[in-house]
Design goal:
about 15% helix; about 70 residues
Length: about 70
């Protein structure tokens, strides 16, 4: 589909806070990590302003991207 699979960094030992159960589904509740936990440096497809995408050839990230993904 030419889109990135979101990768999240969680600073907890278990994923119970982010696991949607059958009971949650019946109540139409989805436990998904918040967007600020997303690690954008893991994206393989670069999105441009014009809406086109290209495959990343390098995994080097700018310092601002790395700082956005810290978990303190």
């Amino acid at each position: 589909m030419q889109d990135n699979l979101p990768i999240f960094g969680i600073d907890k030992n278990t994923l119970t806070d982010f696991t949607t159960t059958e009971k949650d589904m019946k109540r139409m509740v989805s436990r998904f990590p918040p967007p600020n936990f997303r690690i954008k440096t893991e994206d393989l497809i670069n999105k441009t302003a014009s809406g086109t995408s290209s495959t990343a050839t390098s995994k080097l990230a700018s310092q601002s991207e790395i700082e956005d993904n810290t978990f303190e």
